[in-house]
Amino acid sequence: MNFKKGDQVVIISGVDKGREAKIVAVLKKDNRVVLEGEKIRVNKVHQKPTQDNPDGGIVEKAAPIDASNVMLIVGKDKKKTRVGYKMVTDKPSKKGAPSLTHKVRYAKKTGEQID
Fold it and tell me: Does 85 reside within a domain?
């Protein structure tokens, strides 16, 4: 899964096509993401009364969307892009110290590093 909590995405298919949202949760096992934003699809859930919510009733919860239906937004011009991974080697801070290599995400369209 190429998405992380807090990523800004645009929905590319379905009822909410074209809307931008922020990822609240990533469900890796189901390959789905839960989004937060204005007028994003919600499910109405019937909730039993609890100590926190003594009245119970019908509560709206954000519905998970398949990860293939969203694309990451990157940069100031908000271009939607696919996500790739590459290995980046850091320069050692001291002479004689080994260089460290780690995996980072990057935008395939612009080539810029995401995190």
Answer: yes
